[in-house]
Amino acid sequence: MLKKYIQALLSIIIIALAHPCPIQADEVSEAVAAAKKSPKNQKLNRRAAEALLHAGEKSEAIEYFLKSDNRGNLDAAELCFELYDFERAGQLLDKYLAKRTKEQKIFDSQYIPQWSEDETDYTDVLRHRINLGLSMLDRVEKIAVIDSVNVPAEDFLNYYRLARTAGRLRPDTRVERLLPRGWLASQGLSTISPAAFESEAGDYVMFAATDEETANSAVYETYQLADGQWIQPEKVFDYASIFGKETGITVDFPFLMPDGVTLYFAADGEDSLGGLDIFVSRRGDDSYLQPSNAGMPYNSPANDYMLAIDEVNGTGWWVSDRNGLADSVTVYTFIPSADMRVNYPADTPGLADIARLTSISLTHDGVNQSAIAHKNTDAAQTDNGEDEVELSLPDGRVITSLQGLSNAAARKAMTEYVKAYNLLAANCRQLEQLRARYGSGDHSLSFRILSLEEEVDRQSRQLITLRNEAVRAEMGDKMKSL
């Protein structure tokens, strides 16, 4: 459901090549070999570039696009943009424009952004995104990303482990039960966001809904009265009212911090690097103030959304589809800055790789590794202490929460068990996705599949050991009598 929802919101994405289709490995080899044999043949170079791109080899595709026709300069500029090489992207865009034909200009000028009904020059849009990327790269926030897991797009809420004091993230079905009967239809709304924010006390809900005619979305809020009834939701803001301009149509995925003032949400439009970007705003006397882009590494040329922070445990999460896998998103878990935003120096070596999260280990420099391990353990728990799995004991009890265990040693063992269980489940889902892509013809994945199969097998054996440790810690001397 979430994937369809995102696609409905973003019918036109600036970077149309974000999710390459599988292609036979021998087709790529054949196309590349032909291009190398005739290095000045523009058609063969374009064929090789497109084959590499469809196989997910973006960096390798650039070389061959540049050996094709002038349109290849624009294609290469787009890929450099996706790979965070914004400076080169700008140079290649200049090269394309210098040689652009009248026919190409007419074609480029027929581009219609998702936030407008008016035609605009696509190169102007790309230029704006490149400049925005350059600006963001000068202020990459220094956070420690402690975990990243690819999950089915519709399941991402299951990977947020908020303490009750931080509030909760609720699915759309929960929100619909709170609304007055017929309210959606009366407001001309057809879709509710897949995730809504609910306060700690459970008496306040903030959510987004989409107008069925315009496809524009707005953020709403509703309160529970003393008699248990919920008031008719009121519109908090839409894109035009909070940004002060009509260059976007989507506002969604709100998360209100416990201070009742700081709001994180996602939006599209000209202020976004990708499709959806994460923004932060603060409540003023009567309305929310002009938002600011959360920047990198949170945002990317893809869709990024649902940033939530648990101040009690010092942990945050957000979701991105920058992994390029169909029907899958990545949930990032991070340790936020303590008091105020701290950015990397602009001349930090490898800053683009840090911002792009090429490897989350790049964000661990200067961070206490024991703190990272501790946060990862905390992330295995839900907001009310409930765990993702059940633990059956020899005496007939079934443990479903840490509070159901009788001692600290058992709770610690159970936490490790749950952490390992969630990791194994995530790897099994990823393995299933890779096998599906292999079955569609992407045989270049064979080594990754074999490696992940070995890891899943190892984790399965480890899980049995951890489960037995949790059982022994809980049962103690009782084990001798069973």
SS elements, strand count: 16
- Could you give the distance between the termini? 47 Å
Strand proportion, as a percent range, falls in: 15-25%
**What overall form do the CA principal axes indicate?**
globular
The number of helices is 15
Helix content: 25-40%
Gyration radius over CA: 25 Å
Sheet with the most strands, sense and barrel status: 6 strands, antiparallel
- Oligomer category: single chain
In the predicted model, the low-confidence regions spanning at least 5 consecutive residues are 1-22, 376-388
Structural class: alpha+beta
Mean pLDDT across all amino acids: 84
Please outline the helices and strands.
Elements: H1 2-9, H2 25-37, H3 42-54, H4 58-66, H5 71-82, H6 86-99, H7 102-108, H8 122-137, E1 144-152, E2 168-170, H9 172-178, H10 183-186, E3 189-192, E4 196-198, E5 204-211, E6 217-223, E7 234-238, H11 239-243, E8 251-256, E9 262-267, E10 277-282, E11 292-293, E12 304-310, E13 315-320, E14 328-335, H12 351-356, H13 369-378, E15 386-392, E16 398-401, H14 408-439, H15 446-475
Antiparallel strand pairs: 1-14, 2-4, 3-5, 4-5, 5-6, 6-7, 8-9, 9-10, 10-11, 12-13, 13-14, 15-16
Helix pairs in contact: 2-3, 3-4, 4-5, 5-6, 6-8, 14-15
Q: What would you note in describing this structure?
A:
The chain is α+β, with helices and mostly antiparallel strands and 482 residues long. 39% of the residues lie in helices and 19% in strands. It contains 15 helices and 16 strands. Strands 2, 3, 4, 5, 6 and 7 form a 6-stranded antiparallel sheet that branches. Strand 13 and strand 14 form a beta hairpin. Helix 5 (71-82) packs antiparallel against helix 6 (86-99), helix 6 (86-99) packs antiparallel against helix 8 and helix 14 packs antiparallel against helix 15. It starts with a helix and ends in a 7-residue tail after the last helix. The model is unreliable at 1-22 and 376-388 (pLDDT under 50).
